[in-house]
Amino acid sequence: MPPRIAVAGFLHESNTFHPWLTDRSAFEQQTLVFGPGWVREWGDSHHEVAGFLRELQEAGCQAEPLLLGWATPGGPVDDILFAEVADYLCEQLHGGDYDALLLALHGAMVTPTFADADAELLRRIRQVVGTDFPIAVTFDLHGNLPETITELCPLVVAYRTNPHVDQYECGRRAARLLLRQLRGEIRPVVAISKPPVIISLARQDTSQQPVAAFFDAIRAAEQLSPVLAMSFLLGFPYADVPHMGPAFVAVTDGERELAQHLVSELSERLWRERAAMQAELPSPEQAVCQALRSRKTPVILVDFGDNVGGGSAADGTVLLAELLRQAATHSLVCLFDPEAVRQCQQAGVGATLTLTVGGKTDALHGSPITVSGRVRLLHPGTYEETQPRHGGLRVHRMGLTALLEMDGGNLLVLTSERHPPFSLGQLTCLGIEPRQLRIIVVKGAIAWKTAYLPIAGTVIEVDTPGLTTVNIHRLAYRHIRPMYPLHEG
């Protein structure tokens, strides 16, 4: 009989500074499927779960899809939903005759009760399947891994690209190692080292220095015969938890001392280069002024403080206000504002109306702004992306979406769901040709690059306020250990 491999995923990047919990409805708006039904949408995606399935299929194994849950990054995951998912997975694993488990986690999931929710899920699973049951786990590059993860799973594989375009291959790598373990070819052991350095999100493009050199180093280390997998997780700074921060992880074939040596050496190197991991960006006023002077268009203004993919509000108005103040033309801003969408829907396509938009989640991302314009389009907000993009999704959902055309050819995209700029489909599905715009605001940090860089004339990263501010000194941490640059060292 071919091996029966359980496959599951429960992924969330939790911003503990966000005022709202991520509850069941937030997952249902994106993906929350108990049983194998998720394969229809995700089986041909660029996500790691699709990589799991393909590798198992090619190896002649029997894949048993159990569950998949994913929601847009936001506040901590509701304890009730976490318990529901954990109980379901444990019941399925206890009742099924499985040989192993492939599990996709994020690594930065937090609940009100569990600061290390990913590890807690693994703990509960271990209680059911035992310590010797083979499990391979994939993690997002932005995972905040606790050191206890080494006690729960010796097979750990993380993404290596930001924007995340290697998720599918990451899933295949994890599945290949799991199958080798099942065949008795390897005996994986794992080591982790966590340098006390916060890496600015503005320095987390894996194709650029200073972090690119570290990914070169982990690939070189994998050429050593006992080394099975090396990972460098950059960490997620917007989780105020004790284990926040980067991690080096080494998996070797029975050589624990080698694994510990490799990660300790890299950790010491990162500490030496800690100053290079920080960044300073221009203010909104400076950035918009630069954008209006630029002859290379479209200009991409990167709204770091309202990075939707980092769990921010998605309704920040700081750059919109500055664009209007400096009389910009042919600009585009996307805002999460269900109330404004409803007003546009009630007015109807072609109607001209005045409404107040943005700044409704909190007081951190700018004040609500009153604008006037014509409702150019109403759209269901669902579109497909066929190419590998950050997040690996194929189907994207913005909820009901309104396109408002204001004076000067300025456009405002209003969505009913918080939606990150992972794909140009966010604009093209609305009939917008991005290359014809002068200025485009993207509410992101690095993830937008795969989609927008090919059409960008100029890129200006902006130090905007918000839950994902590039200036972490603005955040009120209470639970993290001493870390540079918040604590000089």
Q: Helix- and strand-based class?
A: alpha/beta
Low-confidence stretches: none
Rg (CA only)? 22 Å
* Secondary structure: number of strands: 19
What is the count of helical runs?
14
Give the percentage of residues in beta strands. 15-25%
Mean pLDDT: 97
Shape: globular
Helix content: 25-40%
Strands side by side in the biggest sheet? 12-13-16-17-11-18-10-19
Termini separation: 57 Å
Major β-sheet annotation: 8 strands, mixed
What does this structure look like?
- This protein is of the alpha/beta class and 489 residues long.
- Helix content is 28%, strand content 22%.
- The protein has helices spanning 24-30, 39-42, 48-58, 79-95, 117-129, 149-152, 167-182, 212-221, 256-272, 284-293, 318-325, 338-347, 425-428, 449-452, and strands at 4-11, 31-34, 62-70, 100-105, 135-139, 155-158, 188-193, 227-233, 247-253, 299-303, 331-336, 352-357, 369-379, 382-384, 395-397, 401-405, 411-415, 439-442, 458-462.
- The strands form 4 sheets. It has an 8-stranded mixed β-sheet with strand order 12-13-16-17-11-18-10-19, with helices on one face. It has a 6-stranded mixed β-sheet with strand order 2-3-1-4-5-6, sandwiched between helices.
- The radius of gyration is 22 Å and the shape is globular.
Which helices and strands, and how do they pair?
Layout: E1 4-11, H1 24-30, E2 31-34, H2 39-42, H3 48-58, E3 62-70, H4 79-95, E4 100-105, H5 117-129, E5 135-139, H6 149-152, E6 155-158, H7 167-182, E7 188-193, H8 212-221, E8 227-233, E9 247-253, H9 256-272, H10 284-293, E10 299-303, H11 318-325, E11 331-336, H12 338-347, E12 352-357, E13 369-379, E14 382-384, E15 395-397, E16 401-405, E17 411-415, H13 425-428, E18 439-442, H14 449-452, E19 458-462
Parallel strand pairs: 1-3, 1-4, 4-5, 5-6, 10-18, 10-19, 11-17, 11-18
Antiparallel strand pairs: 2-3, 7-9, 8-9, 12-13, 13-16, 14-15, 16-17
